[in-house]
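Anyone able to model this chain together with FE2/S2 (inorganic) cluster?
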Amino acid sequence: MTDICDLIDKDGGTQKSAIFHDQGIYDLEMERIFARSWLFLTHEGQIPNIGDYVRTMMGEDEVIVVRQRDGSVKAFLNACRHRGAQVCAAEAGNANIFVCPYHGWGYGIDGSLRAVPLEKELYKGRLDKSTHGLRVVPLVESYHGFVYGCFDSTAPSLKEYLGEMGWYLDVWMDAAGGAELIGPPSRSILNCNWKVPSENFVGDTYHVGWTHGAALKALGAKPHRLGNRSLPDGDTGLQITTRHGHGLCVGFDGGPGMLGAVAPDILAWQAQNRERIERKLGSLRTRFYGCHINSTIFPNNSFLWGTNTFKLWQPRGPGSIEVLTWTIVEKEMPEDMKSRIATSMNRLFGSAGMLEADDSDNMESITQLSRGFVTRQGRVISQMSKGDDRQVPGMPGVVGDCAMGETAYRGFYRFYREMLLAGSWDEIRAGDSVWSDELLSLTLQSQSVERRK
Ligand code: FES
Ligand SMILES: [Fe+2]
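re: yes, here you go
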């Protein structure tokens, strides 16, 4: 029996290494986290027409996500109701009907069972087709075009689940004219646990200058970055964690620096956009536009804004994941700019990207070493900047005073623990007041986010 309280200590400062490679913990995560959280499915722009679909995973459950005749999006388990064969084998496409390859049952794009070979002769009127449609994912919602699904019908709405995180997301998902993904996603397998990249993207700016030192040098990064020699002058950024484990690190003046040669016209594009965002959201939020941001939406959906990668870490057992990578761009950008950003993103974070390769080594070593019996009894720490977490007026969530901290790690594992312990969403909701009390107990400290000239 897994002792969850021992896995993650209550104040979120340490975790037992066993969390990175343990079948029992993994099974519990599938039940309590992946079957109850909102999980990224696709972007609406990837399935614009009636019958357009993508095949994806929710935890270890395979689903088909389909654009409906009324414009809505539905998702179904990709398992035939007859004997359970995979109904749709293609990654994406357009369909009028999904036909199971085993015995030929046919399902409409709404998931209903439409056709059964030799139905009259063999079932003789005893098969109720109306109760044998593909099993439906009960909750599917879109947040500014980003489509998420949830298996637990008692979960909060997607908007509530994102909660305080929406304040940050809206800057580029909405006010800047919206965002879209360039697909289809590239796919690769990593021998790592799903939490390792999720925690890295939610809160690890610390590794950048060190892990990526050689690659950054080749890319012409600023000297302070290389080998973590020093913090940047002035802009050390912030780190934020919000209710439900989401979080981000922001480097205010990082901008699209790593996009190298494509940066000058992106900077001009952003300058032109900044005014309208300010009119809509005010100056504080506008400061988050055009920054470099790394982020994870709990549990396994991460992105970098500024290097424009959008990731899904699909669990494949305790020691393996499938990585799906899209390029994320502003919808209204010129097509040529989008395509240059996609090329640059793929060089850095595609399956064979320079920075992807650096990160993959660490992610695999953490996971595989945690198989060792003695190693897995030990603990890893996320205590950096622990005493400095605070509230900043106007900024939702807990704010750490530097992008290089572990505030967002602690928030991620705080909620991870809460989900593993809770028997239902009602119990998780009961924790909202604890979160509010914890926020109130933090020092209130204003933050200057003046733009540097
Ligand atoms: S398993 Fe699909 S038709 Fe038999
Ligand atoms: Fe990295």
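The first strand starts at residue 14 and ends at 16.
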